[in-house]
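Q: Start with the shorter request: fold the first protein.
A: Done. Sequence, then structure:
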Amino acid sequence: MIKEVEGDILLTDAHAIAHGVAPNDHFNSGLALAMRERWPALSKDFRHYCQTNHPKAGSVFTWMGADGKYVVNLMTQEAAYGHGEKPGKATTEYVGHSLRELAKVAKSESLRSIALPRLATGVGGLDWTEVKPLVARHLGELQVPIYVYTTYRKGQKATES
């Protein structure tokens, strides 16, 4: 079941939060920055993972905090390889591959629910009309609630039920 909600995704009751990043992302803008501020270990572990595994766009990095919250980092953008370079824009191909991987993680980790923003539409540069059908295609068959945060409202808990 996919449900669109409005609110602050960091206040979600979902078992996991999924969001789009680039390999080697510095978590210095948007939702990634908010996550880095809330869970400093997330960005440190992500950086270490990228340095040792050299992930490609379309893959995922799954992290779990001490509070039991999963964060699934979807590599929706091309990496920034040079020092100080910005990551490339997202593509629907990368989004599709990472959503397919998210569905596998949801099954293997027995995730009870997933919250995600309008993936790849901010820094990633895609239009939601291109991404929304991919979310439906790859996550619509899961037997868990999927909460898509369509509008950000700082400090406001969404009605997920």
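Q: Next, the second protein, separately.
A: Sequence, then structure:
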Amino acid sequence: MAVINLKAMKVDDVSMRVIGTTPLVQHKWIEKMRKQIRDKKMGKKVTNREKCDPQQEFIGATYVGKETGKYGVPCDAIKQCLVNAAHKDIGIEKTLVRKSIFIKSQDRDLIEPRDLVLFDQTDDPIMREDIVRVGAGSADLRYRPEFQNWSIIFTAQLNTDDIPLDSLINLVNRAGFGVGLQEMRPEKGGDFGRFTVDTSYVQVLEHELEGVA
């Protein structure tokens, strides 16, 4: 039998703090909307217009940890933010980020099956009332939470064989400047969810994924 040696990978756990430079707006699908979609798929009669409860819609649009009860940001939103900031012209391709950076979960959302990174610091969210376009150009109102002063500490599992530590830090900073997180972010034509790296808080735990002989 042939002996196969797997090369050890250099993997670091990199903890970073990012500080919001503009407010962050969230818009999670509330259970009422999920039920309408579910009923429609099952052939049930769907009521198009129900009485709106702004407070319920506002609260339901937040991401809250099941174990901690704290507000948070989905891990996949952070990962996608980094992917969208990557570009071959800066020496980091999007496919490389997808394969080499993974955001570690700190909790799980109460409703959605999504892992969260919790806010390190934040004010209580305030309710926004925004006019949105739906369907064939018709207008509607949405009630969403806005976090005005916020920061998060997240841990990225990084394959440093592919992406060096300094490249990760600069990628995160680039993502905070021009991509942003969640609703109405720069990537979507808005100005919300922007952030910058707190360079005084970068912690690295080095280890290797050993090969198998």
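Q: Describe the second briefly.
A: The two ends are 12 Å apart (CA to CA). The CA atoms of residues 33 and 39 lie 10 Å apart.
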